Amino acid sequence: MSAPKTPPFTVVQSAPEPITALLGALGHTGVTAYLGVHDIGKPQPGETMVVSAAAGAVGSVAGQIGKARGARVVGLAGTAEKCRYVVEELGFDACINYKSGNWRSELDGATSGGIDVDFENAGGQILDHIVTRLNVGARIVLCGLIAEYNGFGSTAPSHQSSNISQGLMVSRALIQSFLVLDHADRFPEATAYLGALIANGKLRYDQTVVQGLERAPAALNQLFDGSNTGKLLVKVAEPIGT
User: pLDDT by residue (tens digit) across 136-189?
Assistant: First the structure.
């Protein structure tokens, strides 16, 4: 099977301020959130949507799109400060610190009516528990499995038990993965929608900027240790003309 054809570059008619938004909320990560929520998750008013890695570049946008569509949105993040940010700054209805000892019971309490949409960025034990909370007809947007990447190719289970098969069967849920580059033709549609949300004050985004190309390897590790908020960027030089 041949790889999908994608354009070598995107022509930007007018640059936003800051221009780095084109690398985040108005770039691949924002488009990823848009496609996952609109094409697969399809949250409806009154439904409950859960977003793992909710303070990250994709999850933070996905949750806000869910709110714009009228859903109740519950995030998961790795620190109490990130949870505060997700609720107070991004407007999620609740956020659970998945590193706390009782995160499962806290998530159960925050999703007392069950889960209709799961925008999944983590996998592992988080996904394993979420499937036990799915309502009939739920949709799982399989965007990432960051908790399982280090175990790629291993024959050992990534966590102690799996409820996934049973949970999907009982809930009659849809689980679907996707790759953003398969949908390059829809970038203008997505960025127009996201730009309108930003203009209307319904979408906020943040960036973590690391200074200097020599710090790129350390910056890469931040993607996996969870120390960044929003889109992680490495600034290598000042823009031409400044």
Answer: 999 999 998 776 655 545 555 544 445 676 777 788 899 999 999 899 999 999
Q: What is the DSSP string of 183-214?
A: GGGGHHHHHHHHHHHHHTT-----EEEEE-GG
3-state secondary structure of 42: coil
Its domain, for residue 31, covers 19-205
Domain assignment of residue 155, yes or no: yes
Burial code (b: 16+ CB inside 10 Å, e: under 16) for 28-49 equals: bbbbbbbbbbbebbbbeeebbb
Q: What are phi and psi of 75, to 5 degrees?
A: -105, 165
Long-range pairs for 221-229: beta carbons < 8 A, 24 or more residues apart: 223/146, 224/146, 224/149, 226/77, 226/78, 226/79, 226/82, 228/56, 229/55, 229/56, 229/82, 229/85
Domain count, the chain: 1
Q: Are 230 and 57 in contact (CB under 8 A)?
A: yes
Domain annotation covers residue 215: no
| Side-chain half-sphere CA neighbours of 102 within 13 A | 4
Q: Does the structure show a pLDDT above 80 at 4?
A: no
- pTM higher than 0.85: no
> Amino acid letter at 123?
G
User: Would 41 be classed as within a structural domain?
Assistant: yes
Q: Measure CA of the first residue to CA of the last residue in the chain; give whole Å.
A: 46
Query: Domain with 181 in it: what CATH number?
Result: 3.40.50.720
DSSP helix/strand/coil, 152: coil
119 in any annotated domain: yes
